[in-house]
Amino acid sequence: MASDGVEVSNKQVIFKDYVTGFPKESDMELRTSTAKLKLPQGSTGLVVKNLYLSCDPYLRGHMTKHDRPSYVQSFNPGQTVTGYGVAKVLESGDPKFKPGDLVWGPTGWEEYSVITATESLFKIHHTDVPLSYYTGLLGMAGLTAYAGFFEFCSPKKGETIYISAASGAVGQLVGQFAKLTGCYVVGSAGSKKKVDLLKNKFGFDEAFNYKDEPDLDAALRRYFPDGIDIYFENVGGKMLDAVLPNMRLKGRIAVCGMISQYNLEKPEGIHNLMSLIVKQVRMEGFLVSSYCHLYGKFLETVLPAIKEGKITYVEDVVEGLENAPAALIGLFAGRNVGKQVVVVSRE
Amino acid sequence: MASDGVEVSNKQVIFKDYVTGFPKESDMELRTSTAKLKLPQGSTGLVVKNLYLSCDPYLRGHMTKHDRPSYVQSFNPGQTVTGYGVAKVLESGDPKFKPGDLVWGPTGWEEYSVITATESLFKIHHTDVPLSYYTGLLGMAGLTAYAGFFEFCSPKKGETIYISAASGAVGQLVGQFAKLTGCYVVGSAGSKKKVDLLKNKFGFDEAFNYKDEPDLDAALRRYFPDGIDIYFENVGGKMLDAVLPNMRLKGRIAVCGMISQYNLEKPEGIHNLMSLIVKQVRMEGFLVSSYCHLYGKFLETVLPAIKEGKITYVEDVVEGLENAPAALIGLFAGRNVGKQVVVVSRE
């Protein structure tokens, strides 16, 4: 227990300066400072030791200097990168937490953090699953997939669903939820290995490598001769434009992300929005932050499904905080296979 | 009564051939044929005399050769143009209608028509309002405005709404519904005369001429410093792209039409769809054909409001079937001020 206020060395990932275009590892730097493992007098926060960090595409938004308010605030150059992670409580000024508790939620990309916004943390009660799952399957990505699919897509048995970036942290789960619902599920990804995962590990009905398809519209027509009822949108750009004319009457597009667009100075133009009228399609953007109240219900659904082997999850685990910048950058090149996790410490 | 099978001269507007780009008057031609005002033995259709015809932007869709199924089927070259209109029944093989009844619904651009799809017709029971209103305010445009605003936009008192093409057949009504709901209402249109109508006749809070605004984003920021809760989309293209970043959290975009795009060989690209995620916006296309069951409720709301002067309506009335092609083409140049109606005959 480290509540005696010892000073420790604290490795940190620092955000250097605003990014335009593709981020590079050199947009972040590693720094080692010292941290006192003690809360200031009267603090209601926590001192935590970070165990696992989550690499998520939305972090790219923090690296841009925004001229309008955004749901992702711009980082300040020189600050520690922040994101979702799993941590162990070392000291607590909040009666809801005690030393030794495991939590997941917003934390810093560093070995030790002081968290003041404790209301954003979830206490981890179930430890008979891999702890790292709370960075993804049992964390934000899982809740995103759950809320996005069940709350937004109004899925019905027998409907057809297409998922882009389907082997990613969210996509792999959406596909499995859709299969459990009795949908026909097709996913796309950017390598043969990922396509194999989709078909053989996650049980998608079909999957394809979008890089092998010069005509995305033709590919979609092939997999969906009668059209798409639900599109779970993770990619944006050309993919979205190809999907729109393939939507069925009263189709739904849950806009979860548009990773192909995050690094462009000007997003690509989408030309086929008239399909929204022709097919009476609903397209809706959503943020998981509006669905935290569903977390309990989500766990009740997902934990038993994991234990019964009905839901499986693939992580791409990188060891060591020093490798976190490369892991994050890798997301935008599609280098990760499955949910990208960084291990800071295993205990 | 003309049920004795007399042969009459029948002026018709004929669709000549598929159109790309802007339609021209010469894409249609006037022909005079003869019509026998008698139904074939056993027919369950109607012989009608057409009184008023509705010029609607969606008609442009019929003039395109579609390579995919669309809600507007391609016209066949050489056929009579068809659209919505008000007509008087001359002869009936359908027990729900009798000679002398007034109806509105799909009919031909000609003096006399035989209508077989009688299930698409609405009988007109209220004739203490101008009959031409059934081409617009009390017809498809009115129901479009009603269903689009009340069913899709989930409007709440105090919310802000922006309407493009606001002085058109649908826009002028949406604005008045929104004012009656207690919203802050801003509309745009393409001339000073139309802007004056919006402010002085329809009671919009603000209105502007989009042609006077080189920076649409700046204009929208000026009228909506705190953002837009509801966008009623009639225009598409650059206007939509300017609106997206100005939407408020949980905003709604009812996609009714995209008139700026109908004559382009390739629709303009929309770059700002990421705002759907950032602001958790819902964008949904709709067709009035799915809302015909609301027509009775709609009339119950609107008829008293017209009589009490709470809702007003501006029509741009052209006399004579021979002027119908020019009137239709005029829509795409914004020449009409208010709902474009063609009078074939006043009785």
What does this structure look like?
Two copies of one chain form a homodimer. The longest helix of chain A is centred in the middle third of the chain and has 13 residues, at 140-152. Chain A has two domains: 7-136 and 314-343, Medium-chain alcohol dehydrogenases, catalytic domain (Quinone Oxidoreductase, Chain A, domain 1, Alpha-Beta Complex), CATH 3.90.180.10; 140-289, NAD(P)-binding Rossmann-like Domain (Rossmann fold), CATH 3.40.50. In chain A, the strands form three sheets. In chain A, strands 3, 4, 5, 6, 7, 14 and 15 form a seven-stranded mixed β-sheet that branches. A six-stranded parallel β-sheet of chain A has the order 10-9-8-11-12-13. A two-stranded antiparallel ribbon of chain A has the order 1-2. Chain A has helices at residues 59-62, 140-152, 171-181, 192-201, 216-223, 237-243, 274-278, 295-307, 324-333; strands at residues 7-15, 28-36, 46-54, 82-92, 102-108, 112-115, 122-123, 160-163, 184-189, 206-209, 228-233, 247-255, 282-285, 315-319, 339-343. Chain A is built from nine helices and 15 strands. The relative contact order of chain A is 0.15. Chain A binds chain B through residues 68, 70-71, 236, 240, 245, 255-258, 261, 266-287, 290, and chain B through 68, 70-71, 236, 240, 245, 255-258, 261, 266-287, 290.
Secondary-structure map with pairings?
The structure is a homodimer of 347-residue chains.
Chain A: E1 7-15, E2 28-36, E3 46-54, H1 59-62, E4 82-92, E5 102-108, E6 112-115, E7 122-123, H2 140-152, E8 160-163, H3 171-181, E9 184-189, H4 192-201, E10 206-209, H5 216-223, E11 228-233, H6 237-243, E12 247-255, H7 274-278, E13 282-285, H8 295-307, E14 315-319, H9 324-333, E15 339-343
Parallel strand pairs in A: 8-9, 8-11, 9-10, 11-12, 12-13, 14-15
Antiparallel strand pairs in A: 1-2, 3-4, 3-6, 3-15, 4-5, 5-7
Helix pairs in contact in A: 2-3
